[in-house]
Amino acid sequence: MSITGTDFISFETSQNMLDLLQVNNHRYERVPLSDALGRVLAEDIVAQFNDPQFPTASMDGYAVRHADLAKGELSVLGDNPAGHDEQRELQEGESIKTFTGSMMPHGSDTLIQIENVIFADGKIIINEMVESGNAVRPVGEGYAAGDVLIKKGTKIGFAEIGVMAGLNQVMVKVALRPRVAVIATGSEILDLGENSENPAQIRSSNNYTLSALFEQAGAEVIQLGTAPDDRDAIMKTFENALESADIMVSTGGVSVGDYDFVKDIVPRLGAEIVYKGVGIKPGRHILVAQRGHKFIMALPGFAYSSTVVAILYVLPLIAKMLGKEKPYKTVAAKLQEDFRKRSRFTEFTACNVVVEDGEYFVNFEGKKVGSSAILTNMLDNSALMIAGEEDKFLEAGTYVNVILLENF
Questions:
Q1: pLDDT bucket at 199, cuts 50 / 70 / 90
Q2: 3-state secondary structure the chain
Q3: Most exposed: 13, 39, 263, 377, by fewest CB within 10 Å?
Q4: Which CATH number belongs to the domain containing residue 276 in this structure?
């Protein structure tokens, strides 16, 4: 699956090839439920019993036989609090005071709420009738035994924690977090905390942006900081990264300049180049390589470019390793203003997405047009609008595909 040469492959081809890469997505560990938040399930969560397992009161009231309500007055046998193993069986003309979550007594089929009756002298007087089965949760209303409640590959949130707690799931089988090493290359790059009197140097943001992005996607990140434009230094850093990480991500050094060493170093590491150069803007000089079960993703150096390319190429690989079905959500949205594409490639443009009456709309208010270095365009819950190779001028009202960046 190796491609060499200077021609760019299409975005669609690159994504198909990425999808075909074989990764180890069967690694897992078991963690306590309290530590499972944010992790990805490595197995389906299947109900072992019905919920509820018996007819249950859904509010406070009196358990009755519906046919007896016509009598207008019923005797009360006593209380039936939640958690009580109620064994009494109602006979004609009887009721039992029953509370929210309590098992409905045998023989009863309806719960009449407290507001509909008056209690006096051990009896209830019916003031307002209710339908048969009122306020009674039937067996299996929540779920039935054998139902798949949470699918493998789901990122565990508060609702998943609650459902598993209800199932008494003490330990949870979750995918091992893939380890991603991140490094920014370039002698012009200043790491955080470093001082320089040279105004031409650039403060590094790529390695911190990408580390946060990958952690948000479920990976464990190894932060390697920055490396100067020195072949031997970069070679050593890459080799060390591949020893400890599943994916090594670098920024800078993949273009065609005199100091762009990454493209030359990767083959020397014994890695096979899957492809170098994709017809996308920004980020067409991306390099994807594989060495055994390890992967190298060499991204452009500009902040916006590296972030977009990481979303398009690194996040799908992380998702595959975690067993997730999709790395991000893509929706169809309607342009609220005209859009003119700036290149012949597939373009990814930072945009704003609004939802009105259940429909997605796209605009570019506050988004600056310029180089691929403007990372601030991704602030304020931005999204990425996709314009295909054949697109040139898109009129307002046109539907476009948009990658949502809120949750991975």
A1: low
A2: CCCCCCCCECHHHHHHHHHHCCCCCCCEEEEEHHHCCCCEECCCEECCCCECCCCEECCCEEEECHHHHHHCEEEEEEEECCCCCCCCECCCCEEEEECCCCECCECCCEEEEHHHEEEECCEEEECCCCCCCCCEECCCCCECCCCEEECCCCECCHHHHHHHHHCCCCEEEEECCCEEEEEEECCCEECCCCCCCCCCCEECCHHHHHHHHHHHCCCEEEEEEEECCCHHHHHHHHHHHHHHCCEEEEECCCCCCCCCCHHHHHHHCCCEEEEECECEECCCCCEEEEECCEEEEEECCCHHHHHHHHHHHHHHHHHHHHCCCCCCEEEEEEECCCEECCCCCEEEEEEEEEEECCEEEEECCCCCCCCCCCHHHHCCCCEEEEECCCCCEECCCCEEEEEECCCC
A3: 13
A4: 3.40.980.10
Query: Which residue range is the domain that position 113 belongs to?
Result: 56-137
**Is 186 part of a structural domain of the chain?**
yes
Q: Are residues 15 and 33 in the same domain?
A: no
Return the CATH number at 344. 2.40.340.10
Q: CATH code at 95?
A: 2.170.190.11
**pLDDT score of 3:** 41
pLDDT at 370: 65
* pLDDT tens digits, one per residue of 133-156: 999 999 999 999 999 999 999 999
Beta bridge partners of 355: 360
Q: Is residue 104, in this structure, part of any structural domain at all?
A: yes
Query: Does residue 5 belong to any structural domain of this protein?
Result: no
Taking only the tens place, the pLDDT of each residue in 337-379 is 999 998 999 999 999 999 999 999 999 998 988 666 688 888 8
Asked if the structure places residue 127 within a domain, the reply is yes
Domain count, the chain: 4
For the stretch 11-61, pLDDT in tens is: 999 999 999 999 988 899 999 999 999 999 999 999 999 999 999 999 999
The confidence band for 1, taking pLDDT boundaries of 50, 70 and 90, is: very low
347 and 228, same structural domain?
no
Is the per-residue pLDDT at 259 higher than 50? no
Burial class, 240, CB count within 10 angstroms (exposed 0-12 / middle 13-18 / buried 19+): middle
Asked if the model's pLDDT at residue 388 lies above 50, the reply is yes
Kindly indicate the confidence band of residue 207, based on its pLDDT and cuts at 50, 70 and 90: confident
